[in-house]
Specification:
Layout: E1 4-9, H1 13-24, E2 29-35, H2 39-49, E3 54-55, H3 58-62, E4 69-72, H4 79-88, E5 92-95, H5 103-116, E6 120-122, H6 130-140, E7 147-155, H7 169-172, H8 176-191, E8 195-203, E9 208-209, E10 212-213, E11 219-226, E12 231-237, E13 250-257, E14 260-265, E15 271-276, E16 283-286, H9 306-309, H10 313-324, H11 332-351, E17 355-356
Parallel strand pairs: 1-2, 1-4, 2-3, 4-5, 5-6, 7-12
Antiparallel strand pairs: 7-13, 8-11, 8-17, 9-10, 11-12, 13-14, 14-15, 15-16
Helix pairs in contact: 1-10, 4-5, 5-11, 8-11
Length: 359
């Protein structure tokens, strides 16, 4: 395969901010088609990119011969339908998270992609933060020892503004749970391993957002027991007043183990906090330069805002996996595993009890 043709289905903010700049890093890649159900959004993307093949119907796009791969950045409820249609036509798929509204659909996507022999990737973008990558490396080396505790806290100030389809349950599935905590669930899986059982709660504190109904969660918390024996506490909120948003707000992970503890904050892309067993306390350690970019990525980490540009490595990983016929990291199976926890969290909140995770 020489030039890889990529179609983008869903041309909103995440596509313009993450996917297009990432694809621009990749050699011999061409965005050949754009699709969005909203004609105005589609026209803005066409003008910005210069791509002339556009459609409001994804079925017109996935069947094209000049499309070898697609990126799905639509409202969540459409993800399985589009992905399965593309997979059936032999297209490689990168899908925004959550990849489905339930575990059954997410697992079906992963199984179909594996059977078809196409590359499949879940957009857990924070896997590409340099400090996150170095943290995973140190844990794999045994620097933390056996894990005792995992905790994460994601606090943003979204106020009561209208967030479009993301506040409509039938389109989004969940609110803060799928939007932000899904990343931290993936952190936990990546750093500690599978969860054995969970208990959770969700809250909708803004039934109206800027005059429009909101039937999704604004806040979510999970307590977890991992299969390794470690414990976990995960919390995420859209209503942490004064905390700001995105990379300017709190996004914190701490792990404690038999040999020491690590702290990871996404806002400190090239630094971790580390403390040894019995030591004087946590101290900063610098992330080595070889972790500043994803292996093989041509991105210059000194160009642009490093709290934004690390996201571009995601597209490079997708394209490189296609070109070298290897699995993507993270895959649809990672997306499905996180979805199982999200399903369990909703069930736990409904019943008020612990939920066993599927093995």
């Amino acid at each position: 395969m020489e030039t890889i043709g990529v179609a983008i289905i869903g041309c909103g903010g995440i596509t313009l901010q993450n996917h297009l700049p990432g694809l621009a890093l990749c050699q011999d890649v061409k965005v050949t088609a754009l699709c969005d159900a909203d004609p105005a959004t589609l026209e803005r993307a066409r003008q910005q990119t210069g791509v002339q093949t556009v459609s409001t119907n994804y079925k017109d796009i996935v069947k094209r011969d000049d499309v070898q791969a697609i990126i799905i950045a639509t409202p969540n409820f459409l993800h399985p339908e589009i992905a399965l249609a593309a997979i059936a036509l032999g297209k490689h798929v990168l899908c925004e998270k959550p990849i489905a509204l339930n575990y059954t659909d997410a697992k079906a996507m992963a199984d179909a992609a594996e059977k078809a022999g196409v590359r499949h990737m879940t957009a857990f973008t924070y896997r590409f933060v340099p400090a996150m990558r170095y943290l995973a490396h140190l844990i794999a080396k045994g620097e933390m020892g056996k894990p005792y505790h995992y905790r994460s806290c994601r606090l943003q100030d979204w106020g009561t503004r209208n967030v479009g389809w993301r506040q409509i349950k039938k389109l989004a599935g969940t609110g803060e749970l799928g939007d932000m905590l899904s990343h931290r669930i993936d952190f936990a899986h990546h750093l500690v391993g599978p969860m054995k059982r969970i208990v959770a709660n969700v809250k909708n504190l803004t039934p109206m957002r800027d005059g429009a109904p909101n039937d999704t969660d604004d806040w979510v918390a999970i307590i977890a027991d991992f299969q390794s024996g470690a414990t976990g506490v995960l919390e995420s909120s859209k209503l942490a007043s004064g905390r700001n948003e995105s990379w300017r707000s709190l996004d914190y992970v701490e792990l404690n183990g038999t040999e020491g503890s690590f702290e990871f904050t996404t806002g400190k892309w090239n630094e971790l906090q580390y403390g040894k067993l019995g030591g004087p306390g946590m101290k900063p350690i610098e992330v080595p330069k070889e972790f500043w970019t994803w292996p093989g990525s041509p991105r210059d980490p000194k160009v642009g805002d490093p709290l934004v540009s690390f996201r571009y490595d995601q597209a490079w990983e997708f394209i490189d996996a296609i070109r070298n016929q290897r699995p993507c990291v993270p895959s649809f199976f990672d997306g499905a595993r996180a979805q199982a926890v999200m399903d369990g969290a909703l069930r736990s909140a409904e019943l008020g009890q612990w939920i066993e995770m599927p093995k």
